[in-house]
Amino acid sequence: MSTDQSGGNAQEIVDHPDAKRRELMEEIRTSSARAVMLHQAVADRFGLNATDHKCLNFLIKSGPVTAGRLGELTGLTTGAVTGIIDRLEQAGFVVRERDPDDRRRVVVKPVKEKIEEFDRLFHSLFRMTVDLLQRNTDQEIDVILGFLKQFNAVSLDAMNRLKA
């Protein structure tokens, strides 16, 4: 059984007497697993691996960044990020360009036409997600959003602890 940093173990929540919390934990685990599988399938479609694909997502969201900044955003080492950028560049998804504000620096920039291919692939999932969110009140969205922000922070912290 895995033990978390607080001294408890993951089995505790699975065995938690509160059925709603148990159900929620199981749905989180299922969602996480399905997300990994979905993004692997997307990566396969484009000849990438899942890590490269998700790093590309960070680049799309952040815009042009240095390799160092991409490492900060993803929590990956500079060596890993360099390999990822090399593969993404070779596949035509990114280009390296001189930073217009500091010619000594190089930024990595997503290639718009290739990103549009991803957009087309995700369009139906995006549309279904928007439709699903429309079913919730603003108050419900606030609760979901608050939980996801906290969960993402906890996940990032857990990742960083694993790497320490």
Structural account:
It contains seven helices and two strands, in the order αααααββαα. The chain is mainly alpha-helical and 164 residues long. Among the domains are: 1-45; 48-110, Arc Repressor Mutant, subunit A, CATH 1.10.10.10. The protein has a two-stranded antiparallel ribbon. Helix 2 (19-45) crosses helix 3 (50-62), helix 3 (50-62) crosses helix 5 and helix 4 packs across helix 5 (78-90). The radius of gyration is 19 Å and the shape is globular. Residues 1-7 have low confidence and may be disordered.
Q: Give me the oligomer status.
A: single chain
Question: Tally of extended strands?
Answer: 2
The CATH homology group name of the domain at 48-110: Winged helix-like DNA-binding domain superfamily/Winged helix DNA-binding domain
Tell me the strand percentage band: 5-15%
What does the average pLDDT come to? 88
Question: What's the end-to-end separation, in Å?
Answer: 21 Å
